[in-house]
Design goal:
heterodimer, A: seven-stranded mixed beta sheet, about 50% strand, globular, B: mainly beta, six-stranded mixed beta sheet, 11 strands
Amino acid sequence: NAGVTQTPKFQVLKTGQSMTLQCAQDMNHNSMYWYRQDPGMGLRLIYYSASEGTTDKGEVPNGYNVSRLNKREFSLRLESAAPSQTSVYFCASRTPGYTGELFFGEGSRLTVL
Amino acid sequence: GQQVMQIPQYQHVQEGEDFTTYCNSSTTLSNIQWYKQRPGGHPVFLIQLVKSGEVKKQKRLTFQFGEAKKNSSLHITATQTTDVGTYFCAGTSGAGSYQLTFGKGTKLSVIP
């Protein structure tokens, strides 16, 4: 089992460009999450999806959109990238229930120039 | 909104010394989880605490959940170089909430 797979692993964008980070999980989990990690800031929740067909904003949703394409896939889109969105992005899926544990992907390192 | 504070931000210890990181929430938590992230890696789940006053052990690691369910701690006895990494707590407040809020983490360095 691959677990949680994120693509791409690295990406460099220019300010104003758009891109989509892809995430897929093969553990049949209902809940999926997108976090960003910046030095000294820990992991901040961007969006989450408690189940297929639903998405909710987290702490820092501005500048991002998400799509829960199906149960396996949860994508994160930057419509007009800004230097402040330079970060490492982690996707995670969660074992059943709101007390479940998170399984993280390996991360996507995004640089916006 | 819910805030989870974690201290210290950094800790340098000599190998064999003990280490403790503390987590405090602005709201009562329904549960708290702990994760470890090795340098260059992704966070990996360690444990979850649900009950008030709960204490769990994993070998040299001891996890506690406060009586008021607003604070938690992770204690490592006799640190080893393999303990190096950043330790995060993450909490959920409100029954039925799927939002998991992370602390900023404690970065542990172990000097051999």
